[in-house]
Design goal:
By secondary structure, the chain is an alpha+beta fold. Helices cover 46% and strands 12% of the residues. The strands form five sheets. A five-stranded mixed sheet has the order 1-2-8-5-3, sandwiched between helices. A hairpin with a 3-residue loop joins strand 11 and strand 12. Helix 8 packs across helix 12 and helix 10 crosses helix 12. The chain is globular. The two termini are 25 Å apart. The structure holds protoporphyrin IX containing FE. Protoporphyrin IX containing FE binds next to helix 12 and helix 17.
Length: 443
C-alpha cells in the first residue's frame, strides 16, 4: 500500500489484478482492485454499506459447512438483519454501561498482572493476550472462562490461519490440505459454540453478549437459529479481544522503547495515587489517553479494511463494476502529514492540539458498521497499561527484533521476549531491529 501510494498517489485503480492474465478467463482476477488512503475515500465507501459490503473475517467454506456459517457474523450482515443484531449487542457496550464495569475491570487486571513473573523472560505478546482475553470474557461473556477461553483460542487460531493465505488461496477440501483442515477445525469450533450456547439458554444477563444472541429472536421474530449463533458468537468474541491485544502489545513495546514518554506516563499515574486509583481516575488521565490514541494511530490493529462493490457504481468519480474490491488503508490515513506532523514518530503529546474526525483517525472505522466496542477498548487498554506500569518496568530482551504481520490484526510475529522488573522508573530503550522499523521511526 505504501509503495502504491508513493508511485500512484492515494487512489490507485488496477483494472487487472495480475496484468498478464486475461481477466475473462480467470473469474477472481476479472474485477478491479482499488487501493486507497485518505479520509475522503473512507467516507465515500464506509457511509454506504449497501453498495460496499464488508468481506468476512474468515474465508468461507463449502455449502452447508460450519466454515461457511462462521463467516456470516455481524460484519457480513447487511440491511435490517445487520441493524437488528447490532441493536441487540450495542447497549452493553455503551459508555455508561462500560463505566459501571470499571472497578471490576481494574480488579481483574490487578489480579492477573499480580501473577506475572518478575525477573525471568516472558513472551510479552502471550501475556497481553491472556490478560485481555480474561477481562473480555469476565465482563462481556458472563465470566464463563471455562467455556469461553477455549472457544476464544480456537477462533483466534482459525483467524490467524486464514490470513496465512494457504487456506484461502487453495480452497481444496481434502484431509491433507490446509483448507480441508480449516473446514474440519471450523466444525469443531461450531460444536463448542453450540454447547456453550446451550448453557446460555434462559440466562437473561443483559451484559453477556453470547446470552443476548442466544436468547433473542431473529429479525422476523423467529428463534435465533443455530447457524446464526454459530456465526455471531465467535465473531463477537474475537472482536472483543483480538484488536485490543494487538494495541496493548504495541503500546507496551512503544513505551519500552520511548523511556521519556514511559517516565511521564508513570509520573502522571503516581501523582493520581497509583495503586489506590479508581478506574474512573485512570480513564480520565490525559497523557495515558493520548498514549493509547497515539499507539492506535501509529499501529492500528486493523490496518486495512476490505470492501466489495455489490452493484456497478462509482468510486472517486470513476465507474467501477460490481465485484470491485477496495482496500482502505487505515495505516496510511493515520499518517496524513497535514494532521499528524512527523507521522512515523510516536508522540502522544500531539493529541493536546489535534482532534481528528473518525475518517481521519481510522481505527474504529466509520459509518453504520463502525466499531461499537470502542469505549470498552479505550477503557481496557488504559486500565491494563496503568496496572502493568504501576507494578512493573518492562524491558525488551536484546537482541530485540520485531517483525510485524497482519493476520488480520497488526501483530508482532512470534514471541516478544521481555523481562519485568519491579517498577523503579529506570526506563531505558534497547537497540531494535526488524520490519517494525519501517512503520515506526524510533529515536
Ligand atoms: C482496539 C480495539 C478495537 C479496534 C481497533 C476495533 C476496530 C474495529 C473496526 C475497524 C471495525 C470495522 C471493521 C470493518 O468493518 O471492516 C470493528 C467492528 C466491530 N467491532 Fe471493534 N475494535 C476494537 C475493539 C472491539 C471491542 C472491545 C468490541 C466488543 C465486543 C468490538 C466489537 C466490534 C463489532 C461487534 C464490530 C462489527 C460492527 C458491525 O459490523 O456493525 N470491537 N472494530
Amino acid at each position: 500500500m505504501r509503495e502504491s501510494k508513493r508511485v500512484f498517489g492515494p487512489f490507485a485503480l488496477f483494472t487487472e489484478a495480475v496484468p498478464f492474465i486475461r481477466y475473462e478467463r480467470v473469474a477472481l482476477l476479472s474485477v478491479p482492485l482499488v487501493l486507497t488512503a485518505g479520509a475522503a475515500f473512507n467516507r465515500e465507501v464506509l457511509q454506504d454499506p449497501a453498495t460496499w459490503r464488508s468481506v468476512g473475517l474468515f474465508p468461507g467454506g463449502p455449502r452447508n459447512s460450519a466454515a461457511r456459517r462462521l463467516n456470516q457474523g455481524l460484519m457480513r450482515l447487511t440491511g435490517h438483519r445487520h441493524a437488528h443484531y447490532r441493536s441487540l449487542i450495542t447497549p452493553p457496550l455503551r459508555r455508561l454501561q462500560i463505566n459501571e464495569l470499571g472497578e471490576r475491570m481494574l480488579r481483574v487486571a490487578q489480579e492477573r498482572v499480580a501473577l506475572w513473573p518478575v525477573g525471568e523472560p516472558i513472551d510479552l505478546a502471550g501475556y497481553a493476550d491472556r490478560l485481555i482475553q480474561d477481562i473480555a470474557i469476565e465482563l462481556l461473556f458472563g465470566a464463563d472462562r471455562e467455556y469461553g477461553a477455549p472457544i476464544a483460542e480456537m477462533t483466534s487460531r482459525l483467524l490467524g490461519r486464514n490470513w496465512g493465505l494457504s487456506a484461502a488461496a487453495f480452497p481444496i477440501n481434502l484431509p491433507v490440505t490446509p483448507y480441508g483442515q480449516y473446514v474440519r477445525d471450523a466444525a469443531v469450533l461450531e460444536r463448542h459454540v453450540l454447547a456453550w450456547a446451550e448453557r446460555k439458554r434462559g440466562c437473561n444477563d443483559d451484559r453477556d453478549l453470547a446470552a443476548i444472541v442466544v436468547n433473542s429472536s431473529d429479525v422476523d421474530g423467529t428463534a435465533t437459529s443455530e447457524a446464526t449463533i454459530a456465526a455471531q458468537i465467535p465473531t463477537l468474541l474475537i472482536a472483543a479481544f483480538e484488536a485490543c491485544v494487538s494495541a496493548l502489545t504495541w503500546a507496551l513495546i512503544l513505551l519500552a522503547q520511548h523511556p521519556r514518554i514511559a517516565r511521564n506516563v508513570l509520573d502522571e499515574l503516581s501523582k493520581t495515587g497509583a495503586d489506590g486509583m479508581s478506574a474512573e481516575a485512570i480513564i480520565n488521565l490525559a497523557l495515558l489517553d493520548a498514549t493509547v490514541k497515539e499507539t492506535l494511530r501509529l499501529l492500528p490493529p486493523l490496518p486495512l479494511h476490505f470492501r466489495v462493490a455489490q452493484v456497478d457504481t462509482t468510486l472517486a468519480g470513476y465507474p467501477v463494476p460490481r465485484g470491485t474490491r477496495v482496500v482502505l488503508s487505515a495505516l496510511l490515513t493515520n499518517r496524513n502529514p497535514k494532521i499528524y506532523q512527523d507521522p512515523d514518530v510516536f508522540r502522544p503529546e500531539r493529541w493536546q492540539s489535534i482532534n481528528p474526525g473518525v475518517s481521519d483517525f481510522m481505527v474504529f472505522s466509520a459509518g453504520p458498521q463502525s466499531c461499537p466496542g470502542y469505549w470498552f477498548a479505550f477503557s481496557v487498554l488504559k486500565i491494563a497499561l496503568a496496572t502493568i506500569l504501576t507494578r512493573h518496568r518492562l524491558e525488551l530482551v536484546p537482541p530485540v527484533r520485531i517483525d510485524y504481520g497482519t493476520r488480520p490484526t497488526l501483530r508482532p510475529v512470534g514471541r516478544v521476549p521481555a523481562v519485568l522488573h519491579p517498577q523503579d522508573g529506570e526506563f531505558a530503550a534497547r537497540p531494535i531491529a526488524g520490519t517494525v522499523m519501517s512503520l515506526v521511526q524510533f529515536a
